Amino acid sequence: MAKTKKPPRWYFSLRSPYSWFAYRELTERYPDVADGLEWIPFWEPDDLTQKLLDEADVELPIVPMSRAKNFYILQDTARLSKARGLKMTWPIDKDPNWEVSHLAYLVAAREGHGRAFVEHTYRARWEESRDITKRETIAEIAGQIGLSPQLLADAADDPAVRDEGVQCLISSYKDGLFGVPFFVHGRDKYFGVDRLRPYVAAFRGQDIEEVERSWQDYDELPRFSAPGGDTGHAGGCG
Known about the structure:
- Its EC number is 5.99.1.4.
- Keywords: Isomerase.
- It holds the Pfam family DSBA.
- The protein is α+β, with helices and mostly antiparallel strands.
- The chain is 49% helix and 8% strand.
């Protein structure tokens, strides 16, 4: 029996500023691509999720971030947000549990409001400097998009949702993810917001030149640059 072909997909993190940039570009510039992708969240697991990953013999590419890299990312995201005309804030994460927001996304997606949840959560984190690892923040976002605050705020307590989240992380491992945003089309992989245009070309079956002609470059961004993305880490880039 022939293998079922996997759909094109992208891995995003609500924690990552580079995923936020990619989200904005996908939805604003390439809505057809955004609509045709499978959206899969990626995050740094808590102890319970890590135990389930260990049982599945899955090791995620999460490593400590150096001080130098942390300062670089602060500078880099300041440049990229300015070039995009975005007023960006840097929240302070105190003892974060990333299951709270990312598993809430899975519930929101199940209810048909996944994209709205992502929009409101990115806004809360990167424009309002709010702590999206707090259940009260997620409860408020749930109310804003017409969902049960308790249902989303307590998503991490639901064993079935937890298992679904583990499958997302296992999928990232099988796809060879090493950072976000991470795009997959067939056997081809693209890392970083700066590789979005080549990915769009692959998705649409177009030449990169055709995609470039429809692109209005940001003032301070080179045509091609080093990948802008978050590699796995244990903390430091928000």
